[in-house]
Design brief:
It is built from four helices and no strands. By secondary structure, it is an all-alpha fold.
């Protein structure tokens, strides 16, 4: 029985134990590093995912609110357009009223011009006794007749002027009312234009928000690649943990084997058990050879 075999086996075991220790340290270091990477990746993904989702949700809320505002503005624009159509009907006779006013004013000017001439003629017959052209005397009967005619014409013309007055006043009142309505039309058109501009601006704002959401969605694709990286790290972590468990088992096995291969282990058991037997046999064979030596 070669007792030295146990010493050789113990030397090989020490070599394997040293190699296992180094491999275990390397695996544990890689395990810690991978675990830290996973924690950092989880934190980054969580923060990024939360920020992306929050930003997209905020954009969706803004889009919905802006669409509601656009709907309200478009409804008000329709109301203003209806109001404009109604006002346009009221302003249609404006040109006719202007024309009618000019006619009334022209009639009054003509009447007043004729009235001034007749009043001048009346004054002539009232103050003149002789004809300024032929110096012939104007008789009282003729003067009275002419004065009567002129006074009648003056009365008729003045009556015409008096009748034209209310017509001119009424026409001017209608024109003034129409011009007030036209001012309302202008103001309504301005409000309508302002609201159309606001609607267009809000539509552009919605387009910008949707474009931004598309960009954020594309960033989610980048995040998905980060999640793939996370899965890969988790797979590596599982492999490293399995390796660590296997190395721990191997360490326990080597500790058990080492305990057996030490001097107090199998070697001691072999010596204690087999050495007396061997000594007995040796003494037996030496006695047979008449060589008495005790071992």
């Amino acid at each position: 029985l070669d007792i030295e075999i146990f010493s050789k086996m113990n030397g090989l075991l020490k070599t394997k134990t040293s190699l296992l220790k180094q491999n275990t340290e390397n695996n544990n270091s890689e395990l810690r590093l991978t675990d830290e990477k996973i924690q950092m990746q989880e934190q980054h993904l969580s923060e990024t995912r939360g920020q992306l989702d929050e930003h997209i949700n905020q954009s969706d809320v803004k889009i919905a609110q802006t669409e509601c505002e656009i709907g309200a503005l478009e409804s008000s624009i329709e109301e203003l357009e209806t109001e404009l159509a109604e006002l346009a009907i009221l302003t249609e006779p404006h040109a006719d009223q202007r024309k009618l006013l000019r006619q009334f004013m022209s009639f009054r000017d003509q009447i007043e011009k004729r009235l001034r001439k007749i009043q001048k003629d009346l004054s002539f017959f009232e103050t003149t006794d002789n004809c300024p052209v032929c110096s012939q005397e104007i008789t009282e009967d003729f003067k009275a007749k002419k004065q009567t005619e002129k006074q009648q014409l003056i009365f008729q013309l003045q009556d015409g002027i008096d009748k034209l007055g209310p017509k001119i006043t009424n026409t001017e009142t209608r024109i003034s009312a129409i011009e007030t309505i036209q001012q309302q039309v202008l103001e309504t058109q301005n409000r309508c234009a302002d609201r159309r501009s606001t609607v267009q601006a809000k539509k552009e704002y919605i387009a910008a928000l949707r474009a931004e959401n598309i960009l954020l969605q594309s960033r989610r694709g980048v995040q998905e690649s980060g999640e793939q990286r996370m899965l890969e790290l988790q797979r590596q972590l599982v492999e490293l943990e399995e390796t660590a468990a296997s190395q721990e088992d191997e360490k326990r096995y080597q500790e058990i084997v080492g305990a057996y291969l030490r001097d107090t282990g199998i070697k001691s058991m072999v010596i204690q058990k087999y050495l007396p037997i061997m000594n007995k046999l040796i003494n037996k064979y030496l006695a047979a050879l008449d060589f008495f030596v005790s071992f």
